[in-house]
Amino acid sequence: xxxxxxxxxxxxxxxxxxxxxxxxxxxxxxxxxxxxxxxxxxxxxxxxxxxxxxxxxxxxxxxxxxxxxxxxxxxxxxxxxxxxxxxxxxxxxxxxxxxxxxxxxxxxxxxxxxxxxxxxxxxxxxxxxxxxxxxxxxxxxxxxxxxxxxxxxxxxxxxxxx
Length: 162
Fold this sequence. Notes:
By secondary structure, the chain is mainly alpha-helical. It has a domain at 22-66. The protein has five helices and no strands. It has helices spanning 22-37, 44-54, 61-74, 86-108, 136-159. The chain starts with 21 loop residues before the first helix and ends with a helix. The mean pLDDT is 77.
């Protein structure tokens, strides 16, 4: 991205900002000099932050050691597990044990024997003789309806619905 000077004293018609004043230009030049040459600037923290972001200097080994010692001293002691008191862990274990007993108790329940409909033969569906030709769709529909009814009854019986 290249910066271009404004198109005259008032800038271009597309420019939303007014052109920089003489004071702003002087401040920008002073900031550029202090960034390039390291000359003193009234806003020293800004200059240091910009320099550190653009061209960071290596950290002094003594300062690095000092920061490490400070960070490790503030770290959580290794004896505590996720900062949970022991009572909370005991309560959590009791709840988990109760949930396991509940699930095992449900699975140990014996199912009630249910008489299921047997779907074996289609002889009981037809009393009349089959015609020599035609009627295939009607026969298949009658068989499909009977089997779906039996399946539905078996499912409801298995679920304990009567």
